[in-house]
From TrEMBL:
This is ABC-type branched-subunit amino acid transport system ATPase component. It comes from Inquilinus ginsengisoli. PANTHER family: CONSERVED COMPONENT OF ABC TRANSPORTER FOR NATURAL AMINO ACIDS-RELATED. Gene3D superfamilies: P-loop containing nucleotide triphosphate hydrolases. Keywords: ATP-binding, Nucleotide-binding, Transport. Signal peptide: none annotated. It comes from the Bacteria. Residues 4-238 form the ABC transporter domain. Pfam families: ABC_tran, BCA_ABC_TP_C.
Length: 238
């Protein structure tokens, strides 16, 4: 059984089935990629997992526990964190102060050792140690993204959901991000990332899931999925 098991997940917005019955497993310790054209349901999937939206039908099971329709704070408390495209830092506070606040509000059920016992350890992990007294609001975009990851990690997740983590980053920043994310499974954190940057996904993910019009059309090893005629058709508009 996977860490996160999604079965028959459906989310209807009026006449639109943003998710039209999706089955998906996130395996413990993997970095899973979810791709698909605009409007295919990727963000809705994250929003249902994280409790922003209640599904119309289907189930979300996290480590054997039914989490379907669980509110966002309880999902976070259960060990599922997510980053936003816009970093959610307090702009008037320093990097260190932001991470301290996030750490103080973390879940407390600590069932496993945390790899970064202090805020400074976490700031070091994301490579912002030299900037820890900088005000978050003046950080360059790429560093703000790294701070966003630190804030998500401060909640002590076992699963981290990343929403277009490399959007707006330059090549060097993207490489830093990839190297960072690749270390997470080694720290006991599974990762699920949505993005439409295929080269990023090829670097980051061994397994890819493709959504199209709210349905899963492919699921397997990245290279195989990217060579799948169904997937090529979606991307080439064939
Ligand atoms: P993606 O992230 O793959 O671009 P989304 O999950 O954002 O796709 O959207 C899937 C579909 O659901 C789209 O047709 C979108 O217009 C619709 N949708 C998403 N969120 C809402 C909402 N809050 N209200 C109405 N329709 C929505």
């Amino acid at each position: 059984m996977g860490a996160l098991e999604i079965r028959g997940l459906r989310k209807q917005f009026g006449g639109v089935a943003a998710l039209a019955g999706v089955d998906l497993t996130i395996v413990e310790g993997e970095i899973l990629g979810i791709v698909g054209p605009n409007g295919s349901g990727k963000t809705t999937l994250f929003n249902v997992i994280t409790g922003v939206h209640k599904p119309t039908a289907g189930t979300v099971t996290w480590r054997g526990r039914d989490m379907t329709g669980t509110p966002a704070h309880a999902v976070s408390h259960a060990g599922i964190a997510h980053t936003f495209q816009q970093a959610m830092a307090f702009p008037g506070l320093s990097v260190l102060e932001n991470v301290q606040i996030a750490t103080e509000h973390c879940r407390t059920d600590g069932e496993r050792p945390f790899p970064w016992p202090t805020p400074d350890d976490l700031i070091g992990f994301v490579g912002l140690q030299a900037l820890r007294h900088e005000i978050a609001g003046v950080l360059p975009f790429g560093n703000l993204r790294l701070l966003g990851i630190a804030l998500a990690l401060a909640t002590r997740p076992s699963l981290l959901l990343l929403d277009e983590p490399a959007a707006g980053l330059n090549d060097k920043e993207t490489t830093t991000l990839v190297e960072l994310v690749q270390q997470l499974p080694g720290h006991g954190i599974s990762v699920c990332v949505i993005d439409h940057d295929m080269s990023l996904m090829q670097r980051l993910c061994r397994r890819l899931v493709v959504l199209d019009f709210g349905s899963k059309i492919a699921d397997g090893p990245t290279a195989e999925v990217l060579a799948d005629p169904k997937v090529l058709e979606v991307y080439l508009g064939g």
